[in-house]
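ARCHIVE CARD
Drawer: 12
Card no.: 0347
Subject: one protein chain, sequence and derived structure
Cross-reference: see card 0346
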Amino acid sequence: MNIKKMSAIGSIIIVISLVVFSVAILSISRDTGVYTVNLSPQASENISRYAGLDDLISYRITFNNVTGPLSSYLISPTGIRSPYHSSPLNTTGNVVADESGLWSLYILNTGNRTIQLTVELTVVPESTMFTVLAAFTLLPIGIVILIFNPVKNRIEKFKNTRRKV
């Protein structure tokens, strides 16, 4: 194959990779819910989102005004609690859904002051994760194709000039 064809193929693969990656990131950002929560002492908040089987559920809890004791955990559709956090600091958590249905993030203010929180809850479908992996796989393949053929041709030219000498 000549240099122009290989360069065109490599460039097309790189562009496809970047487009697929951009679409996946746009999908993830669209699926992120941001909530402002005010919790008085001993009050709780329940935020629910649907997640399919093997979807990635990610959450981040950030204190806006003052920090205080806080308990948070995810509740599966069958009512089973997963990672429990009890922390006066900003909290993050990830879990892969082992069942599909409505997952709930339960937050409880265990302190004696009113706190204001920003809660980000993201559900990333399994297909989106595969799309991101495919994009990251295509990118180096395209780069290698783009670089390999000109290098191969230069090596051949070098060998031909050495043969003539």
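Annotation on reverse: The mean pLDDT is 85. The longest helix spans residues 126-164.
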